[in-house]
Write a structure and sequence with these properties.
By secondary structure, the protein is mostly beta strands. The protein is built from one helix and 32 strands. The strands form nine sheets. A four-stranded mixed β-sheet has the order 2-30-31-32, with no helix packed on it. Strands 4-5-7-8 form a four-stranded antiparallel β-sheet, with no helix packed on it. A four-stranded antiparallel β-sheet has the order 10-11-12-13, with no helix packed on it. Strand 4 and strand 5 form a beta hairpin. The longest helix is centred in the first third of the chain and has 10 residues.
Amino acid sequence: MSHRKTLLAALLGCAVPLLVSAAEWPQWRGPDGQGHIAGSGYPLTWSETENVVWKTEIPGRGHSSPVVDGNQVWITSAIDAPISEEKRQAKLKANTGNQPLTLVGELSLRAVCVDRATGKLIHDIEVTTDDDPDWTHQINTFASPSPVLEDGRLYCCFGAHGSGCVDTQTGKVVWTNKELKIQHENGPGSSPVIWGDLYIVHCDGSDKQYVAALNKRTGQLAWKTPRSGAMNENPQLRKAYGTPLVARLGGRDQLLSPGADWLYSYDPATGEELWKLNYETLGFSIVPRPVVHGDMIYMSTSFMRPHILGIRVDAAGGAPKVAWRYDKAGPQIPSPILVGDALYFVNDKGVATCLDAKTGELHWEARLGGNFAASPSLADGRLYFHNRDGKTFV
């Protein structure tokens, strides 16, 4: 097996809240999924020698974000074996895209836990395996979706390679599920959400596109809803890597679900489609997660030329409408963040933008420098932007 390492660090003041009060960072982008961190007093600078409490090497590779509960910090990782040349050539022929690929043999897909105070390794658990995995993009990993923590259970998603649930105290695997198969093309990216007794995840491949819910206690399929919007003729433009958000809109819980070319709303209990809205521009390989305030939804259409949409939901249950559209310097990968009446985002090339959330008018724009994939966070009244080189702008 390949034992490449991922480095997990606890920083006094970084946007991963490893040192704030316990049990309030259960999923990607925090408790409400919108990137707001509680607490105060975070340092504004750190380095290899300043304001670093501990650093721990994690076996394997992964892009998932840590989740925190009490003294436990969890992250997912993938350890791979070399692929035979025969299988390598067969997979290269099967790929219909032109992206740079990572091709591997067997996969061990894992959940790793470290002590919050010391960084000491507590658990390293094999959640599931894949003996013949599809390829992933070279900048992606097989452990990119972030897990979810709830009531002593860790819910892990590895896309088409499988999902699983782990008891956080014993480290035992409670269930696994390998039914949700699609062709990602670039590897997994959609993180799950927990709502009631359901584990809900996007499955937007080049071949099939649907949203599915598993019973969080058993891992059995609860519902599965195909995407109903018209799809592009090119299969490569049908895929997406978005993460849903459950929000209270129009007097009910709605599962906001960005897919290729369409934003959907579903009843999270049943998977019934409530409405859908076309982006009116090419939008695929969706990564950014929507943010919500009042009756407004804010999202990026991602690839190829991202548009930021301000979408107003009808309180009476009518069709939502695009209230405004901003088509300059939008992000393909980072999610936006809402602070009061201001919407902030940074695009992949490092241009940070602030818009009036009510009107979409530009407040300011600034070039930060470097390339970006991480989503910004808010902590103690300050925004944190992290580029791919490990530099943070506050």
